[in-house]
Structures are given as C-alpha cells and as structure tokens.
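Researcher: Please predict.
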Amino acid sequence: ERERRKKEDEMTLAELRREISESPPGVDTAEYRVEFHQRLVLPLAPLLFALIGIPLGIQNQRAGKGGGFTLALLVFLGYYLAFSFAETLGSEGILPAGVAMWAPNIIFLALGIYLLQLSATEKRLRILDAPAEVATRLKRYLRSRGREK
C-alpha cells in the first residue's frame, strides 16, 4: 500500500524538523518552516495577552466593562492580523520563516513592556481617553444643535 503524505499541520515537531533538514536543495520548505515556528510561537500568545492586559485593565477604568471587552477584542484582533500577515510573509518566502513568525510576538512583547512601564510610572495611555472624549464632544455638539432650532 502507498502511504499518504502528511500535511505540515499534521506532522510532529520532529517530523517537521526532519522534513526541513532532509529536503533536497532547491525544494521549497517555507511551509514546513512556518509551521515549525508557529508551533513554538503560539503557546506564548496567552502570556503576551496577559502582559498587555494587566496594564490596560489598570488604566482603563473610565470605559467600564464594555470598554474593557472592546479593548480586549482590539488587542486580540491586532495580534491575529499581525500573526496572519507574518504567516503569509513566511510562507511566500518574503521573509525567513523564523523572523516572520517571531515578529508579532516581539512587537507585542515590546508593547506589553511599554504599557507596564507606563503603569509603573502611573502615566495614562492617552489613546484610552479618546473614545470618551469623542463621546463627550458628540454630546455637546448634539445639544448645541438642539438649542439652535
């Protein structure tokens, strides 16, 4: 019987490493390399979310529960988009797979450290105040429009 060839997402780390090292020169192994690094990178994502979420949770007291949930979704969406973009760059061979797959984690790690530093010095991230300011300005504008009539 002929054995079915496994896809890269079905392989173990050892099988991926073997496939990469034993491939003849000239054979594109980008997909295997991306999958290999993806397996190393993804388990760190929850730690990065915690690193970012703690300082944001401390700072974001004005927005309430809905604002915190929205902010969490935005952080997750940002990571997902960065990760998907990096995966494409690595799979297409535009960037080396290791560089592409680790870049979103490094960027989010830097963001988390920056936010922790802001929290430690008790400074607010001004962008968190923007939605409340927009809402206040909109209310003032609507009130002034109501008085004119």
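Model: The chain has a mean pLDDT of 84.
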